[in-house]
Amino acid sequence: MKINETGRINPINPYQRTAEAQRQEQVKKGTRKDEVSISDEAIKLLQAQNSGKVDTDRASKIESLKQQVSAGTYQVDAAKLADTLAPYFKQTSGN
Questions:
Q1: Digit-coded pLDDT (tens) for 44-92
Q2: Nearest to 62 by CA among 74, 79, 78, 47
């Protein structure tokens, strides 16, 4: 029976060395904590929502649309829809 590399004593896995090095770096740097940043726009929206301030024009328009849809009287303006969708189809057909 032949035994190769008898001079090696307790070989260390390279992955284990890498993991240990990363742990030591974290200890040196200290423990990193997650951070959350909220944009100014999100803060304004949150404040408006919490203050109970509701855009009455928008709310009345939404309620009107809900009533029209449930009654079956809502009509889609085909020209307006086509104008809105046309840039999308122009962009995708060019690729």
A1: 888 887 776 667 778 889 999 999 999 999 999 999 999 999 988 887 6
A2: 74
Residue 73, classified by CB atoms within 10 Å of its CB into exposed (0-12), middle (13-18) or buried (19+), is exposed
Q: Give the mean pLDDT of 22-49.
A: 81
Q: How far is 81 from 11, CA to CA, in rounded Å?
A: 70
How many degrees, rounded to 5, is the angle at CA 47 between CA 51 and CA 56?
55
Q: How far apart are CA 31 and CA 71, in angstroms?
A: 59
* Alpha helices, DSSP H, located in 30-77: 40-50, 56-71
59 Cα distance to chain centroid: 28
